[in-house]
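Peroxisomal trans-2-enoyl-CoA reductase
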Amino acid sequence: MIEKSPLAEFTDQVAVVTGGGSGIGRAIAVRYAAGGGNVVVGRRAEPLEETARMIEDFGVSAAVVTCDVRDADALTAAIDGVAAEHGRIDAMVNNAAGNFVCPAENLSPGGWRAVVDIVLNGTFYGTRAAGRHMLEAGRGAILNVIASYAWHGHPGTVHSAAAKGGVLAMTRTLASEWGGRGVRVNCISPGPTETEGAGAALWPTEEDRRRVLGSVPANRFTTPEEVAESAAFLLDPRRAAYITGDVLSVDGGQWLGKVIYSDSSARA
Ligand SMILES: CCCCCCC/C=C/C(=O)SCCNC(=O)CCNC(=O)[C@H](O)C(C)(C)COP(=O)(O)OP(=O)(O)OC[C@H]1O[C@@H](n2cnc3c(N)ncnc32)[C@H](O)[C@@H]1OP(=O)(O)O
Ligand SMILES: NC(=O)C1=CN([C@@H]2O[C@H](COP(=O)(O)OP(=O)(O)OC[C@H]3O[C@@H](n4cnc5c(N)ncnc54)[C@H](OP(=O)(O)O)[C@@H]3O)[C@@H](O)[C@H]2O)C=CC1
């Protein structure tokens, strides 16, 4: 449950969140609204309508655009439309992703392309479109959602890890390119989070779930709301004003690597 933020840190601001109809994207969108910001969320209409209702409960405006992030022209037109309507874009959250577990030697070129197109290319299209408006205004924050296997790797994730690694490189590059022009670019890296998409795609069995949990020192999954609170910090133009080109891991220590903590005696 996300409650109204006493900071009201996004009052009169505008955010675009891709993949805002479920999981982490929905929680970030709602948390932005809880801070007083207006939010535009994208892709399938039905789940987005529910997100829009949750946003409007905070007395701010919500808009839904049904747009696939792989379609650069459609995404650019949607983002230009947001800027024209609201006169500003303060935050762009590139959260949309596709994922599944597949051994690299079995992954088809089509499977590789599906994930790289959504994660790496979609993030660039969204960043470029929103970035242009932010650069013109001389302010803005871009937040890209990655995963720690971007640097430590994980079996079965070659497509996603390569794409997220590319997003990390893009983040650092644009932070250096746009830092002097008022636009901050950062990543957030959630640990295993119970969401509609992740559970079914990544830990479908109890055994998979236990293995994933064993890679998290904190010994628990996180929640979309917990991730969204950290996202709000990075998007806040006051508290995070001097943070750019960085990654905030919200993963119970999973980024530390492949240490398996499933033996409880090792925890004592
Ligand atoms: C394991 C470690 C866990 C710890 C960390 C967790 C990190 C979590 C990261 C996340 O990203 S969670 C987010 C998960 N959410 C989603 O994935 C939701 C969205 N998903 C999708 O849209 C699909 O899964 C998609 C496949 C990525 C894209 O859908 P689309 O409809 O565009 O594609 P298709 O036409 O169905 O397939 C395209 C292509 O991909 C091949 N493919 C699809 N699924 C699989 C699979 N399970 N295994 C192997 N290959 C698959 C499919 O065959 C097509 O290839 P070609 O036939 O064209 O060669
Ligand atoms: N859950 C986890 O454990 C972790 C997640 N992450 C990252 O967090 C982010 C959110 O994941 P999560 O909430 O778990 O996953 P979900 O599957 O719940 O959400 C993914 C969202 O992406 C949208 N999406 C997928 N493909 C496209 C596309 N082509 N165009 C536009 N939107 C699209 C989906 O929209 P639609 O519903 O319309 O298909 C959906 O809203 C992702 O970037 C993921 O990689 C990172 C680490 C861990």
